[in-house]
Amino acid sequence: MVRSEESKSISPRSNELFNNQWATYQKILNSNYMGHREIYNALHELLVDYFQKPFTILELGCGDASFTTTALLNTFVLSYKGIDLSKLALEIAASNMAKIKCSQVFTEGDFSQLVPELVKNRQDTFDAILISFALHHLSTEEKDYIIGQLLNLLSTDGVFILIDIFRKQEEDREWYIKRYLEEVQKNWFLLTPQEYSMVESHIWSSDFPETQETLYSIAQKHNFNRVECLYCDSLDTTKLLCFYR
Known about the structure:
Largest sheet: 9 strands, mixed
Distance between the termini: 29 Å
Order of helices and strands: EHHEHEHEHEHEHHEHEE
Structural class: alpha/beta
Strand content: 15-25%
């Protein structure tokens, strides 16, 4: 069963902005510039190895769920709940997820606001919670709060899976962004100047990556049993971390 929960309409300008950004993002994904193929292969292996029985999964900031769909193929997924700010992305996500035979719910909204509501309602717990390339948009304090809340939404032996960008221990934000953009300029050669400008603007305005050590400290503070890194790219910028309850 697929159920959609929606709360607001999309203006023509929002559609135009979404389409422009979407086309650029799809070019980045199709060119594998951010290593999505390798990352989600690692995620698939985790889901197959860790869950030997039916499991439930919550994805926060799910976007179109295209890579999540591939990671969930041939697993024991029982139900999936996806939350995202974009109604249009959720419509695409529902189409992508149609090939996965499980119960599905798609909710429009800001996960940083909806997670506390889920905790307060105490209606659902999940065996896995996935956040992919979304947590870095929050401040350190907001990340701390959300990770603490997620523990309350995980079932016994549940796992919070984080795919995201990270600074090196010795880097500040500015140093990290300059290093990252050097890589973009050097190797993301299919981007037009306009598309590069869009990427650069987004990174400077919206990316606030932490160090891996900071996330480990937050996990320890909130009593996660252990944390492990299952994937790290060659540039030491993108990682897949597992926080075990």
